[in-house]
Amino acid sequence: MTKSAPLYNRLALIGVGLIGSSIARAARAQDVVREIVATARSADTRRRVAELGIADRVVDSNAAAVAGADLVIVCVPVGACGEVAAEIGAHLVRGATVSDVGSVKGAVLHDMAPHLPAGVHFIPAHPVAGTENSGPDAGFATLFVGRWCILTPPDGADADAVEKLAAFWRALGANVESMPAAHHDLVLAITSHLPHLIAYTIVGTADEFAEVTRSEVLKFSAGGFRDFTRIAASDPTMWRDVFLTNKDAVLEMLGTFNEDLAQLTRAIRRGDGEALFAHFTRTRAIRRGIVQIGQDSPAPDFGRPHPHLPVEPLPRPYATSDDS
Ligand code: NAP
Q1: How far apart are CA 176 and CA 289, in angstroms?
Q2: Were both Cys, which of 28, 153, 180, 228 would link to 157 (CB 3.0–4.6 Å)?
Q3: Is residue 45 in contact with ligand 1, taking CB distance under 6 Å?
Q4: How far is the CA of 39 from the centre of ligand 1 (A)?
């Protein structure tokens, strides 16, 4: 992949945590925009972003950030997207593209669209990449390499604007696919939201046994538990918002999951080794399929190399990409 001329003049990033700061780092490394203006809710984060030097300018308000920007990406928790849209609506430049990175798309579309003026291209997006870490220090330029970014353009979205945003994400190393927001929310409910809920549950359950077994839980965590603890360390605000805003799809998947769990429970109770073996064989094949299509490697995932990005040290503990 070769670098192309900048696609946008000024990128405004609202929210500079894991995802926003990774976009800033990757966009700069790829020269995909001429200027990056950033803002965050707290003075502490704004100060840290300025110290890190990952944006050309750090400003104090959302309205100031979007002034003159031809690409605005809102990188805040899903539940805050509506209020951010209300703040920026009147300050957007005609012809600008407004996007986001939220893990739920129906709610973002519903909450943001009413505040955005005609003449602005609203194209929600979700980079399916992340780690359990938060904040501007957690980001890294290669986060999106080899990962999917899903665009959910509303009906009637301008095709050129959609293609330009797709080109932006491809320049950051991502593969891009478009689909309706409702379909996105259903797919992500099973591939991301339910796994996180299970991890949150199991780590909580283990903690209930902590009185007697805390040392054993930690000592023998490599037996499976450790992987759950990493996912269960994910940002509480972000995940609260995911479950509140993708309630219907998550409940639907949870219903099916509970039925399947009941079946496995019954197989264990009845000593039905054949049923257990058949189930585990099927799930092993699914895992191997994921490795085959390049969405994970058999080795621990320390981020994928990008042909043109300088290799940055990964944050410690080593970030493993996570499909959030
Ligand atoms: P993060 O590291 O916690 O950063 C969140 C940013 O949003 C911070 O700059 C924070 O500002 C700001 N913010 C928080 N609450 C806000 C509010 N009420 N109003 C305005 N700004 C607010 O989060 P992240 O992991 O980058 O996640 C951002 C978005 O990306 C979320 O919508 C999430 O669903 C999506 N996403 C996350 C992942 C993942 O794995 N983490 C993956 C894909 C997509 P302060 O620092 O000043 O508080």
Answers
A1: 20
A2: 153
A3: yes
A4: 12
- What is the DSSP annotation of 226-278? HHHHHHHTS-HHHHHHHHHHSHHHHHHHHHHHHHHHHHHHHHHHHT-HHHHHH
- The confidence score (pLDDT) of residue 316 equals 31
User: In the sheet where 148-151 sits, what is the strand order?
Assistant: 125-128, 148-151, 175-178
| Closest among 140, 141, 74, 136 to 103, alpha carbons compared | 74
Q: Which residue has tokens 């095709």?
A: 159
Q: How far is the CA of 95 from the centre of ligand 1 (A)?
A: 26
* Residue owning tokens 């538990």: 225
Does this model's pTM top 0.70? My answer is yes
pLDDT in tens, 269-299: 999 999 999 999 999 998 888 888 877 765 4
Tell the burial category of 34 from Cβ atoms under 10 Å away from its Cβ (0-12, 13-18, 19+): middle
Answer yes or no: is the C-beta of 79 below 6 A from any ligand 1 atom: no
Residue 78 CA, ligand 1 centroid: distance in Å? 8
Residues with pLDDT less than 70, the chain: 1-4, 210-214, 297-324
